[in-house]
């Protein structure tokens, strides 16, 4: 600059140098406050945060409530006295009874299908469906025309009955009828009925029933 002496230039240069040092010091202090990178240092995520994000929702409790099926049948006023009388242990405390749980009526709890059998040849003498209502199970279906067996098939109730012609031995029925029921308007309604003749070794004719 014109008009400045050597000593004036030296003083001005010293001032510039001092300002540069102060600016560098300020930048250094700022970097230290942000983890040394000049930007916010996030750091690794906490383990509990990662686990919380990856954790799957708690599964809802099962709808199935296992019950004493023998007591259920014996206390049921809709079960015949004959079936109750013959419902005794076959070996030790093993009763001739088959129990399955599943959704048939769309209730809060699983429905219960109970088949009562004979001890010797496991012939079904009674089939029943129980639905939970108000904290207790109520009989919503029964059939006591042996040989009979009920089961749950893809949300439908399927009842199979053996068909005997005259002189058929118990071990060799002539065929069977398979009836499918659906739950509608508070009760089971027959939907399909199929007849299978064993002697012909062919499937029966399935037709909807109203």
TrEMBL record:
Q: Where are the transmembrane segments?
A: 12-31
- Location of the region described as Disordered in the Swiss-Prot/TrEMBL record: 38-65
**Protein name per UniProt:** Lipoprotein CseA
Q: Which UniProt keywords apply?
A: Membrane, Transmembrane, Transmembrane helix
Organism per entry: Streptomyces guryensis
